[in-house]
Amino acid sequence: MTNRNTLRTAIAAATLSGVFAMPGFAGNAESLSADIEKHVTDITPQVVTWRRDIHEHPELSNREFRTSELVAKHLESLGIEVKTGIAHTGVVGILRGAKEGPVVALRADMDALPVTEDTGLPFASRVRTSFNGQDVGVAHACGHDAHVAILMGTADVLAAMKDELEGTVMFIFQPAEEGAPAGEEGGAELMLKEGLFDELTPDAVFGLHVTAAAPAGTLMVRSGGVLASSDVFSIKVSGKQTHGGLPWLGTDPIVLSSQVVLGLQTIPSRQLDVTETPSVISVGTIHGGVRQNIIPESVEMTGTIRTFSPEVREQIHQKIAHTAEHIAQSGGGTAEVHIDPGYPATINDADLTRRMIPTLKRIAGDNFREADPRTAAEDFAFYAQEVPGMFFNVGAAPEDPAKRFPNHNPKFNIDEKALPIGVKAMTSVALDFLSGS
């Protein structure tokens, strides 16, 4: 206990002094309730401690056993109703306020990545495990350690304000945002499938993500499409095998596949209205042939489809099949197309986002900005398909530019001054939504 208290004191001195010294932050603190300020200030050292502990002990998708146990014990200590084992390792907490009102859900993802950490941090991960038959390192290279710690801190703050709460808060600690292991289900889709919103349906759901694209103190959101859908396609182009010196005796699937790759690129640039929504089709693998003088029987390729519009997404699926099949047929071959739908686009509800922008501006001040749409994908989208949702970003780039690396990089790390800002943002959007602000 002595060591923990010493750590908390040291972190408080290093962290809080930096947080409240940031440009534009001091003035905003005055506009927030004194209770929220005090609770966030008090819990920040513990939030940092949680983040470092989770960072040092990362767990892959559907294997977040230690993390979920840590979360459940904390929620129980606050007197929050706790449900565990949802979608394998998911944890849900229900905090019922003293006053009647709406239901708001707050979500954090818990899983780490099969990445060998190279940050040099004293609390860096040294965990290794087997992934897809390979020995790999495991690291929180996408900031989910911060997300869990922020939501744990938010639960602490809101539980302390239970008597003033005008409604109910659902805390969703979700496994497998990065994708379930092969042969398994997981993530937001499975949580919903197992009845997450059946007994208690939120009136709104909020999620956040730390980003190395902006400094600590920054909050970013946009209405409408904020993250793209992501689908995987595979195409098998079949021809007729023959000698490489006698191609006219066969049908060359390599040439046809090359034409298919080029044809796919005309879909977003020539077959869709480029002013409506951005779309990206990328071919990532091509495999065919075993010897330089044999034209093979078939070629297989795989790739991804990303767009921000559900309607355009469906059009692209149809056009990929049409393009591949007809190009193959034009050369005497055939094409089999399979599309595996992944995460839908994350669409921020327009009315909800409009209501909450003043809340984020109150916290970030001049450091608030409109988020740019990104072609990454997020399974928060499944929640936002069920109820109005808003997903926003918390700037967390280290102050030293030489230490700034993108998410999923082995050197990815955050500026911990982002943690209390995340707690304040999550707490404030929940309270403002419940109170009808």
TrEMBL record:
Phylogenetic classification of the source organism: Bacteria, Pseudomonadati, Pseudomonadota, Gammaproteobacteria, Oceanospirillales
UniProt protein name: N-acyl-L-amino acid amidohydrolase
Instruction: Name the residues that bind Mn(2+).
Output: 142, 144, 178, 209, 408
| Keywords tagged on the record | Hydrolase, Manganese, Metal-binding, Signal
Q: What does the entry's cofactor note say about binding and number? A: The Mn(2+) ion enhances activity.
Gene Ontology biological process terms, A to Z: diaminopimelate biosynthetic process
Domain Peptidase M20 dimerisation: residue ranges: 233-328
Provide a Gene Ontology MF annotation, just one. Answer: N-acetyldiaminopimelate deacetylase activity
> Which superkingdom heads the taxonomic lineage of this protein's source?
Bacteria
What the entry lists under Pfam families is as follows: M20_dimer (PF07687), Peptidase_M20 (PF01546)
Q: Where is the signal peptide?
A: 1-26
Cofactor(s), names only, from the UniProt record: Mn(2+)
